[in-house]
Each structure stands twice: as structure tokens, then as C-alpha cells.
Write a structure and sequence with these properties.
The structure holds 2 protein chains of 2 kinds. Chain A is mainly α. Chain A folds into 2 domains: 44 residues, no CATH class; 126 residues, no CATH class. Chain A has 8 helices and no strands. Chain A is rod-shaped and about 105 Å long. Chain B is mainly α. Chain B has 9 helices and no strands. Chain B is elongated and about 55 Å long. Chain B starts with a helix and ends in a 5-residue tail after the last helix. At the A-B interface, helix 1, helix 3, helix 4 and helix 8 of A face helix 2, helix 3, helix 6, helix 7 and helix 9 of B.
């Protein structure tokens, strides 16, 4: 048998040859010292290549990528959340502070839908009940601070609570919508 | 559906932590591939960042019928090749001067007879991967995809858009260049 070509030896080392061919090469390697030496070197080269030397990537890569990707989403979301929350806060505040649930638009709507069994009537009833309850809570909180601490800070505390609630609610709504829109893309 | 694809579904559902997980999984390999292609740390950091941002931006276009790693490396490969075309000097300037000198050779004289074999291989490995970074780009890119990233010949053909035969042939030639380079420096003796 003639000496083995480099190409054949590489293929043998890579185990990409048929079994019969491999057996012939094995037999030849036993008797041919020159091919054996070349095989040893190619084998060593292959095993060194199969164990790559990695360099640790700088930590800045992950930090920067996360900052660049997720900076865009919060900038849009925070504006939306703030606009929505401010609107909710303003409307709720006006309704609660002036007790509009009992003598305003909602009251009128309640009267209009009183004799109907439609879902609009139910929604109006629920909104009216919520506002009445919140107004009751607001008055009780004010009274509590006036009696216990002799101060009138119930309005401020209530306003802050309402503002936080509005922010949380709108952030939740935004997250839910954002996730939905992402899911639809799959 | 493999692990990568499950992760991508979660990312598309809007979970930030899952993209971090994907990045952690691929960061080291992608960085090392880019670094050995462009041979400049600053540029490698920039290109690796650009790669992950691009992946995030086009993730919704990923076709789940294909392997994610092949798709991702195709994007990475194109990104690097675009950069190389714009800055050829940066990449080819060292090709004619493989590796200056190997200092590691001296250390083997301090090793006992038992540990000699292991250290010798470790030395060759360290030296070999330095030489890999200095061979011509058309060979280097294939060696990196095959051995650094562990792709099969057909996957490399998909990534580089070369025929499988050309890929096999170039990898063989690349290994011959590496072998001769190491022999020239007496590392196999």
C-alpha cells in the first residue's frame, strides 16, 4: 500500500471515512513509520483544535446591551404610564373630592339606567358603588387624622395613595398590553 | 423544540431575564469568534454588542423550523464580514506575520517526566490558537466556525453560503497551514 495522503489522514482522524477504509489505514499505520509520525501530528493538531482556548468577554458587553435594548421600552412605557396614571388620578380625585358619585354625571347615568338590565347599567352601578365607598373612606381617613393627631393631612395621604394606585394600575395595563403584542408576533 | 427555541418563545413573550440568559449562553462564543476574526478588542466588544442588539431587533423574524445557533451565527458572520470589508487593514495586516515568538516553549524544561505530556499538549494548544488568529481570513473563519463554535460542515456551508465541498477543502487547507506553522516552530518535536 502506498503512503497515505495528508487529506486521507485528516479524514481518518476526523472519523469521516468508511469502516473498510479505516481498517486499511490502521493496517498501514502499523507498518509505516513515516505515516505514523504524520498521523501522530495530525491527531495532536485535531485534539488541540477540539479544545479551543477561550478568552473571557468583558462584562461591559452584557451591561451595555441590556441598557441599550431595554432603555427604549421603558422610555415609551414610562410616558404612557405617566399620561394614563395622571388622567386616572385627576378624574378620580375630582370625583372623590367633590363627591360626584352622588350628584354628578354618574348619578345621572345611574338614574337613566336604573330600570334597565343592560350591562351598561351594571357597569354604572359598580362605578357608582366604588366611588361612594372611596368617598366614605376618604371622609373617614380625614376624620381619623383630625381626631387622633389634630391635623388635617388625610387629603394629602389619600391623594398620594390614589396616585400610587393609578401608577401601578397603568403600569400593569401597559405590561399586559406589551406582552400581548409581543406574543402575537410569534 | 430545543432549549434555545423555548427561550426565544419566552423572550418574545416579553421576559427581560430570558434575553439575559440567551446572551449569557452565547456571549463567550460570539465574542471569541468576533475577536479572532477582527483581532481588536475594542472592535470585538462593539461588534458583539451590535450582534446582540440586532438579534433582539429581528428575533420576531426567526423561523422556528431552523436551528437558532445557525441563524444567529449567520447574522454574526455577516456583521463581521461587513466590518472586515469596510476595514480590511485591521484584519489582514497580521496575516503575513503569524506569531512572533513562542515563550511557552521554555517552560517545559521545568516539568517532571510524568507531567511532560500534558504540559506539552497544553503548550501546543495555547500556541496553536494564537496561530489560528493569524492565518488568512478565508481559512480562519471556517476553522473558528468548525472548532470554536462546533458547527458541522453543512451548517458552516449555510452560515457562510459556500458549497459544502469548498468548506471541507478550505478546512483541510487551513489545518495543513496550522500543522506546517507548528512544525516550523518545532512544537511537534
Amino acid at each position: 500500500m502506498e503512503c497515505l495522503s495528508d487529506k486521507k489522514l485528516h479524514a481518518y482522524v476526523e472519523k469521516s471515512l468508511p469502516a473498510v477504509e479505516c481498517s486499511r489505514i490502521r493496517d498501514h499505520l502499523i507498518v509505516c513509520e513515516s505515516c505514523r509520525e504524520r498521523h501522530r501530528r495530525i491527531l495532536l493538531l485535531e485534539s488541540c483544535l477540539l479544545e479551543p482556548v477561550y478568552q473571557e468577554p468583558p462584562a461591559v458587553i452584557e451591561e451595555q446591551v441590556m441598557r441599550r435594548i431595554y432603555a427604549r421600552i421603558p422610555s415609551l412605557s414610562s410616558v404612557l404610564v405617566l399620561i394614563g396614571a395622571s388622567f386616572l388620578f385627576l378624574v378620580s380625585w375630582i370625583y372623590v373630592y367633590f363627591d360626584f358619585a352622588n350628584n354628578s354625571f354618574i348619578q345621572a347615568l345611574r338614574l337613566t339606567t336604573a330600570n334597565t338590565s343592560s350591562w351598561i347599567g351594571s357597569v354604572v352601578k359598580v362605578i357608582s358603588t366604588v366611588f361612594t365607598a372611596v368617598y366614605g373612606g376618604f371622609k373617614a381617613l380625614n376624620k381619623f387624622f383630625a381626631i387622633v393627631f389634630d391635623v388635617n393631612v388625610g387629603v394629602e395621604i389619600f391623594a398620594l395613595t390614589l396616585l400610587m394606585f393609578s401608577l401601578l394600575l397603568f403600569y400593569g395595563i401597559y405590561q399586559w398590553l406589551f406582552k400581548r403584542s409581543k406574543k402575537q408576533k410569534i | 423544540m430545543d432549549d434555545d427555541q423555548v427561550l426565544i418563545k419566552k423572550i418574545l413573550a416579553g421576559r427581560r431575564s430570558d434575553f439575559e440568559e440567551l446572551m449569557k449562553k452565547y456571549n463567550k462564543k460570539i465574542y471569541n469568534f468576533v475577536f479572532r476574526m477582527v483581532r481588536n478588542e475594542e472592535v470585538s466588544v462593539e461588534l458583539t454588542q451590535d450582534f446582540f442588539i440586532k438579534i433582539y431587533m429581528v428575533l420576531d423574524k426567526y423561523n422556528f423550523e431552523y436551528k437558532f445557533s445557525t441563524w444567529a451565527y449567520r447574522i454574526c458572520y455577516n456583521l463581521v464580514i461587513d466590518h472586515v470589508r469596510k476595514h480590511p487593514m485591521l484584519v489582514d495586516s497580521l496575516d503575513t506575520h503569524p506569531v512572533s515568538q513562542k515563550k511557552l516553549m521554555d517552560s517545559k524544561h521545568y516539568v517532571s517526566e510524568d507531567g511532560f505530556q500534558a504540559l506539552e499538549k497544553e503548550e501546543i494548544k495555547q500556541y496553536l490558537w494564537k496561530v489560528v488568529a493569524s492565518i488568512p481570513l478565508k481559512y480562519r473563519e471556517l476553522i473558528l466556525l468548525r472548532y470554536l463554535q462546533g458547527f458541522k460542515y453543512d451548517e458552516i456551508a449555510q452560515i457562510t453560503e459556500l458549497p459544502v465541498g469548498t468548506v471541507k477543502n478550505r478546512i483541510f487547507k487551513a489545518k495543513e497551514i496550522l500543522r506546517k506553522e507548528i512544525e516550523k516552530d518545532g512544537m511537534f518535536e
